[in-house]
Amino acid sequence: MPVAVLGINAYHGDASAALVVDGQLVAAxxxxxxxxSKHCAGxxxxxxxxxxxxxxxxxxxxxxxxxxxxxxxNLTAKALYLVRNFAQVKSVAIERVKNLLxxxxxxxxxxxxxxxxxxxxxxxxxxxxxxxxHLASAFLVSPFERAACLSIDGFGDFASTLTAxxxxxxxxxxxxxxxxxxxxxLYTAITQYLGxxxxxxxxxxxxxxxxxxxxxxDAIRQMIRPTAGGRFxxxxxxxxxxxxxxxxTWDEGTPKLGALFSPRMxxxxxxxxxxxxxxxxxxxxxxxxxxxxxxxxxFFHLLDxxxxxTGLTDLCMAGGCALNSTANGKILDRxxxxxxxxxxxxxxxxxxxxxxxxxxxxxxxxxxxxRMDDVYLGPxxxxxxxxxxxxxxxxNGWDPAIQVSKLGEDELCQRTAAAVAAGKIVGWYQGRLExxxxxxxxxxxxxxxxxxxxxxxxxxxxKHRETYRPFAPSILEERVGDYxxxxxxxxxxxxxxxxxxxxxxxxxxxTHVDQSGxxxxxxxRTNPRYHKLISAFAKETGVPVVLNTSFNEHEPIVCTPNxxxxxxxxxxxxxxxxxxxxxxxx
Length: 586
Description:
586 residues, 5-stranded mixed sheet, 19 helices, alpha/beta, globular
């Protein structure tokens, strides 16, 4: 009988589930992909059911479930802080306690997700500290037998940062940075100050930074400072989370986060940007550039100490800050680390994977046998579902100018490549859904990177994003060094490399203002059809690169064939490749 561990990220942003069976990760999915509520919090009922379905595990046969939150973690530090600051944070503390109680007593929610009257007696529920789950999600699925490990984000279980050493099937914690100090809070607070108040908008600031100069770096250095032992501290007078508490909602639906910055930040940096404004450049871009510079100083202060303390040259990272692809692209040049593995779902969604593997290795003490080479871990819909989706849409009435052809793989890729080369916008829907924030060739919109105008065309017709934000290149893995100044593997689109001087004019639509690109090196072994598409485009144009952006329009990445078809029908997309079916507006 197989041994299964269900990993759960619940009552936190990007609620998710993952399933490990006999040491192999067989499924992982975010709740938002199924309920269509972006960054959905709450309990991932639909994701749990889908993971069990994919893994072929009956709910009553499940032996272990692991939640990536532990209300008892760092309990002494929590109690001391609450006693010292109870008057200021009383109302928020009550809400946090309610949230923690839901986490601690998740039996009812888990039973509902399993569609059972109660949690089975044979199902053991484990609580894994938030950052321990982050660390497990990185090291225990990495290609390294030994590695230094870093988890860094806003906060989770009263900590913002954990450093550790991974050896074999164990991750041993070395140090913690506890509440209220957090590099993630610094980045989020200035993100809010710059007029991006929604949950998870930090990447907008990272994309804006290359347009500015770090003229405010000294002012931001006053807000956070490195300390001994690779640690750091915030000057709390610039922030509000420690004194007033920050109101957060972790119920069903998109999370909401209250303001993190205090009036002193406005005094230091000037008036905050109005979220309704369409002005991004000048002072705002300079502040974004300054933030990125100071964040990287703290980041490399951490890494330098971690490398010296462990003596290891392999690094594993997770946590929301590990999605800072600008900093990630500098690790090999600016630190003593020689190889890096960054969890592709580095945010809180990835803690579902980490919680499951923490139990499999730390609790059940099994040796390692799984290596994460790809993120195609969600549901897959076959030919019958695709045909039924198209037939339903036809029955309900659609543009009669849409032509549908079913093609063999070679012709499908050649015809799609020709459409991309002709300047058409193509929705590319294939195989299993990706896990994590990036579309990596199964739920992607693909266009020609040679056309500088494609960035504006995409925004005008589908994406409607801020004009300064870059789009990413997917490139054949074997050709990375031909187009970028580094050739190190970058399969998950979480690292930025500089584009070679002699290639920047070949791919202007995916080359950012600072001559960089957040690339995906596409491997034939892990995604043969996407690799074949890019190869066909290279044969057509001489360029082994396509512009790849996520298949969505102001919503979660599409999951089902119907999601993809509805997005195609409501936008000005030219072509939809739905499995083997090629749909084109005449």
